[in-house]
Design goal:
single chain; 2 domains; 384 residues; 16 helices; elongated; mainly alpha; abc type-2 transporter like fold
Length: 384
């Protein structure tokens, strides 16, 4: 390969990018905009669930029980009511997501040592949030039961309530969260967003950059020139790889300084892995571009092979072990999953080459394989 020719092709492509304002915006503005939109809009934390309470008893015990829920940070208390019918409309228009219904004679039954049935409504339109809310309700109710029972027995026996409370919990579970001690979903999501955006932007840029030459007829200048296939393709890819690496640095800065995600790993190793991943994703765009002849077809084809896999088959939302057997095979056949492992390992776990070299090796193989496939598919003397 002639480096001078590669440099000329790369410079020409860069000039084309700078001249086209829409393409320039797509290259430099859209990735950062996507990071902001997804970062602020995508959260898996279930807190401040709108809550209402129906108290048919109006006793001291029922109010104390209700305060267990209204004072919790997991629920955002909205209203008290004495009739369920008043809250049905609020539940239907999504103003309320959970309702605690305390029955009549609640306090009297507890004093008599009898069980009292408390009903809970939970909006099930979002199953994940509904199941999490159910867990919150069960945990608060369990704590209230222990408090109520220990207070009742302490009054009867004279044993200190703290002693009875400890006796009711002979085994206490102490949970220690590793790597993400504050259990913030954005700390896990932000590194994976880098993976998703770098799976979306570089392939689109590369595919459109090559195909628009086909549409304009400029590709025939390449066909008739002395440029080799390798020189042309490397020269075309270099600007997009460079742009994507710059975008990756910006996305990493957003993750660190805007969303507060920690970075515990080796920055140089992460940068090298990012460059390899960008080469992979630009290779995907190259492969799509040599197979289609219009920008619309390039956009559709690129979207099919990047958008869905980046979100569903990379561990972004659903952990890989939780996928079905077929979905797991698809995930392992795509580079996004391996870069996501490197991103999470670098940001949260603080691991480097010693632990992540298999993922790095697979990215190297993908980079070589995708470029080779694009090289073999591109012909300077097309059949048509």
């Amino acid at each position: 390969m002639n480096l001078r020719r590669i440099r000329v092709v790369a410079y020409k492509e860069w000039r084309e990018i700078v001249r086209d304002r829409l393409f320039f915006t797509l290259a430099f503005v859209v990735p950062s905009l996507l990071m902001l939109l997804f970062g602020y809009g995508l959260s898996l934390d279930v807190e401040h669930i709108p809550l209402a309470i129906v108290d048919y008893d109006q006793s001291v015990s029922s109010r104390e029980y209700a305060h267990q829920f209204s004072d919790s940070r997991y629920f955002a208390f909205q209203a008290y009511s004495q009739r369920e019918s008043e809250l049905e409309k609020l539940v239907m228009d999504n103003s309320i997501r959970a309702v605690i219904i305390i029955p009549p004679q609640f306090g009297a039954r507890l004093k008599a040592g009898q069980p009292a049935d408390v009903q809970t409504w939970i909006d099930g339109t979002f199953p994940f949030r509904a199941l999490t809310a159910k867990g919150y309700v069960s945990a608060i109710n369990a704590a209230a039961n222990i408090e109520q029972l220990s207070a009742h027995l302490s009054a009867l026996s004279g044993i200190p309530q703290a002693t009875l409370r400890a006796a009711f919990q002979p085994v206490k579970v102490e949970i220690r969260y590793l790597y993400n001690q504050e259990v913030k979903s954005i700390w896990s999501i932000a590194p994976k967003l880098i993976m998703v955006i770098l799976m979306l932007s570089p392939p689109f840029l590369t595919a459109l950059g090559v195909v628009r030459e086909k549409e304009s007829g400029a590709i025939y200048n390449v066909y008739s020139s002395t440029l080799s296939r390798g020189e042309y393709l490397v020269g075309k890819l270099l600007p997009y790889v460079a742009i994507s690496v710059v975008n990756a640095c910006l996305l990493t800065a957003f993750a660190l300084f805007l969303f507060g995600a920690p970075f515990k790993g080796n920055l140089l190793f992460f940068l090298l892995a990012t460059i390899l991943y960008v080469v992979c994703t630009t290779g995907i765009g190259l492969l799509v571009s040599v197979m289609v002849n219009t920008q619309v077809a390039a956009m559709v084809g690129t979207a099919i092979v990047t958008v869905v896999p980046a979100v569903l088959y990379s561990g972004m939302i659903i952990p890989i072990p939780s996928l079905s057997a077929v979905a797991s095979v698809i995930a392992h056949a795509l580079p996004g999953m391996y870069y996501a492992e490197i991103a999470i390992g670098s940001f949260l776990k603080g691991v480097g080459f010693a632990a992540l070299w298999p993922d790095m090796l697979i990215l190297v193989l993908y980079s070589f394989g995708l470029f080779s496939a694009g090289f073999l598919a591109f012909h300077k003397r097309p059949a048509n």
